[in-house]
Design goal:
- The protein is an alpha/beta fold.
- It has a single domain (about 15-205), classed as Vaccinia Virus protein VP39 (Rossmann fold).
- The chain has helices at about 15-30, 45-50, 70-80, 120-130, 155-165, 175-185; strands at about 35-40, 60-65, 90, 105-110, 135-140, 185-195, 200-205.
- Strands 3-2-1-4-5-7-6 form a seven-stranded mixed β-sheet, with helices on both faces.
- This is SAM-dependent methyltransferase.
Length: about 210
């Protein structure tokens, strides 16, 4: 009797990663240390790790996500990349204390704090303060309001759609919300990189 093999697992794909991964990598090359452990928060499908980790040879990449269902996707993309420096994905709830990772040399978080309650942003900075040494980077990517205003009509529409899904979500104000939280948590904003599609990459340093 001839057996049949199980169908190959097809991980989820996020189309936005194809558009933003190259510009993000260019910025991360400047912001991240040459070596050490990079903790990625809210890895999603894991496609950023699969694309970037092979091109950042000094870094071990630890992907994480709040959703248990995402972990298989992250690991599948990591295997397909062939990069042995991507560690098995871990479930991480940023509002929890402690986290399943106890130290890191850098933290990267893409497109999370606007698609989550504000408590997630608070947990992110609190956890980063516990893990990162002085001078280490915390890098955030996504859309932000500046001085209370949206930077584009498309961001205003996106914000409205987020709040329609969950009133606790929304595009955060950089100066009015994110920077004050960072300062209270022991971080300073060092650089703002303007990105395609009306997004920003923010470099915070642990002080």
């Amino acid at each position: 009797m001839t057996g049949t093999s199980a169908p190959e697992y097809t991980p989820a794909h996020a189309p936005a990663t194809l558009r933003n991964r190259a510009p993000l990598l260019a910025v991360l090359r400047r912001f991240l240390p040459a070596e050490g452990l990079l903790l990625e928060i809210a890895s999603g499908t894991g496609e950023h790790a699969a694309y970037m980790a092979p091109q950042l040879p000094g870094l071990e990449w630890q992907p994480t996500d709040y959703s248990p269902d995402a972990l298989a996707d992250i690991d599948a993309h990591a295997r397909a990349s062939g990069c042995a420096r991507i560690r098995p994905a871990l479930r991480l709830d940023v509002t929890a204390d402690p986290w399943p990772v106890t130290r890191a040399d850098a933290i990267f978080c893409c497109n999370m704090i606007h698609i989550a309650p504000w408590e997630a942003a608070e947990g992110l900075f609190a956890g980063a303060a516990r893990l990162l040494p002085t001078g280490a980077p915390l890098v955030l990517y996504g859309p932000y309001r500046r001085e209370g205003r949206h930077t584009a009509e498309s961001n205003a529409a996106f914000d409205a759609s987020l709040q329609a899904r969950d009133p606790r979500w929304g595009v955060r104000c950089l100066e009015g919300e994110v920077v004050p939280l960072a300062t209270r948590s022991g971080f300073r904003l060092e650089e703002i990189a303007v990105m395609p599609a009306n997004n920003l990459t923010l470099l915070f340093r642990r002080v």
